[in-house]
Design goal:
Length: about 400
Amino acid sequence: MNKIIKIYEEDSMTAEERLASVVRLEQPDRVPLSLFIYHYAPVFLKSSMRNYINDTSEYMRVSRQLYEELGPWDIYYNTNPYSRFIYSTLLMMRLLYPGKELDEDKVPLIDEIQYMNEDDYDWVIKMPRLFNIAFFRARMLPRFCREAEGLGFIRTILRMWNHAVRQILYSRKDMQWWKERGLVVQIGMNPEMPFDTFSMARDVIHFSMDIMRNPLKVRDAALSLSESFADEAIIISRLMGVPRVQCFCHRTSNSFISPKQFEELAFPSMEIIVNRLVKAGITPILHCDGDWLKNLKVMRRLPAGKCIIQLDGLTDIFKAKEEIGDHMCIFGDVPASMLAASSPQAVDEYCHRLIEEVGRGGGFILGAGCEIPTNAKEENMRAMIRSVYRYGYYSLKKTERSVA
């Protein structure tokens, strides 16, 4: 019989049970905590960013040491790619890496270039829809990914699947360590939504022109990719053994497009993808950068009690609780600026407020708005991590637990 591992002795649920409970909008024993802590780890431990990013064994060593020094938390926010090639395949943007294009201790950067042409929309729409997302990736990768330059279409396809298999094998090995410590793994696949990929691929200026001049073409191209996008995500997440898919929606917010454009152009493909994932028993995690407040009414059309929406500091998370908290699990939102510049007392108080207000009744995961900033103060990180123990137990809402 497998031993049941708890994060804290006082817990009455495992981390897996706790996450499942909040997705269903139920009240768990305690508010769970997930940290997008990718680039912070080597900075905190004064390790080489170059080695950490490029060497999977070094990533595992550093991330595990960070957990042992700062933990515990409930959810392993797994984002490390096996290679820059596979990272570029899922998040289709040119990446600059330390020790390659950047100095050895620099954080990886995105170099936004226009690599998709206007007539590529027509090509996408006309393609047969069976696994057309793979053909789209293979056509685009040599245009922006240095590891795909000169490969050609067939060799790019073969490399995509070779690196996908390597990613799955590496990730399953990495995940085992975290599971042995009682954590639940957050992500089975981590792709960028088609509409958002178009925005990155065309660059923000040309894409803005596209949705003004040819809005239906953009919508139809995203729709054309949506079913195979979901099917690819289902296959990969099942091979990973993690029934959750994190979809990046970083160019679909009101920071980039109007609520009307969201509803008419972006939401149709999002709805197909989410419904297809949910039907397959997969939990969609919508990573929503930017201001989403005016989009939330439309997002109530997505299945209730089946999705997670992760918000950053640009969406008022307290208003989001009122708008969609009875329909979708909310994930967030300690701002990066607070972790970097505020006091531990301020972080503690803000986390307490999040737990009491956004966590009211359940359906809440505490975390940062997006990634933990590399200049986050250690004492602020400790304040956030300990807040779920101090304030997060629903049976003890009126009592603050002391933390040694």
